[in-house]
Amino acid sequence: MKKDEAERGIRYLCSQWAALVGVTPAPSASPNFGAFYGWVRENHSPYLDFRTTTSVRDDVERWFDQEFKQTWRN
After folding, report:
1. How far is Cα 20 from Cα 35, in angstroms, rounded to an integer?
2. Are 61 and 14 contacting, i.e. CB atoms less than 8 angstroms apart?
3. Which of 15, 18, 23, 27 has the fewest Cβ atoms within 10 Å of its own Cβ atom?
4. What is the largest CA-CA distance in the chain?
5. How many CB atoms lie within 10 A of CB 72?
6. Which helix (H) or strand (E) holds 57?
7. How far apart are CA 35 and CA 37, in angstroms?
8. Which residues contact 24 (CB under 8 A, 6 or more apart)?
9. Ramachandran angles phi, psi of 72, nearest 5°
10. Distance from chain centroid for Cα 32
11. Nearest-angstrom CA–CA distance, 74 and 64
12. What pLDDT does 29 receive?
């Protein structure tokens, strides 16, 4: 999978996971990236199969942070 395809998929999965666990995408929320990443790995692993110059986990975490407005962590 290409990185841009994975990014679109991961961003979509953020909203799916948020609805599943009851998290809202807001700066005051404290979504658990580890739980999200594990859920993606177990249920949607093809989205973690792309080439990157950093690491897949770092890219996914950056997209997750952006989707949940956790940019204060960057």
Report:
1. 12
2. no
3. 27
4. 33
5. 7
6. helix 56-67
7. 6
8. 18
9. -65, -20
10. 10
11. 11
12. 65
Q: pTM for the whole thing?
A: 0.88
Dist CA 16 CA 20 (whole Å): 6
Ordered per-residue pLDDT tens for the chain, 74 residues:
999 999 999 999 999 999 999 887 665 667 899 999 999 999 999 999 999 999 999 999 999 999 988 866 55
What are the two backbone dihedrals, phi and then psi, of residue 71, each rounded to the nearest 5 degrees? -65, -15
> H helices within the chain, ranges in order?
3-21, 33-43, 56-67
Q: For residue 54, what are its two tokens?
A: 């950093």
The Cα–Cα gap between 36 and 61 comes to: 9
